[in-house]
Fold this protein.
Amino acid sequence: MSLHFPEKPRRPDGAAFVIAAGLAALGALLVWEGNRLPQLGGYAGVGPADVPKLVGWCLVALAGWTVVAAFRGAFPERPRQQVPPLLWIIGGLAAQLVLLPMAGFSIATGILFACTARGFGKRQLWISLPVGLAFSLAVYGVFDRVLELNLPAGLPETLLYGG
């Protein structure tokens, strides 16, 4: 019985260093912005500046962990990027941006849902489009009736919720 140990790469993982740099930059930005906010702790001692600073420091720590993993070669092999699913999702986002002012929230977001489902491998658009429209109408109802926030209304929203 022999043990198979994977060969270590000759160089550290360059993509991991790019990811670590992005995490560190975002973390440093959050810490910097958190330091600019006023510390109004009140009776609990926790103010609006504490959460951005905490998240920022956690991102900086994750960046350090990513660098260590890159030097160790601990990242699994990444699969080859597939372009068509990505184009379905980007096309759905573009369609939502274009249709949102004209068709309203439910139709635009339902189309985004169907395109994203297609990008993730669901081939039956005739099923995912009505499901997306139903979910979008429900989300619109929560935002409009419960949270009292305004979303762009189209024909379905006007008929169901009164606009």
User: Anything to note?
Assistant: The CA atoms of residues 146 and 152 lie 16 Å apart. The chain has two domains: 2-71, 83-161. The mean pLDDT is 88. Residues 83-161 form one domain.
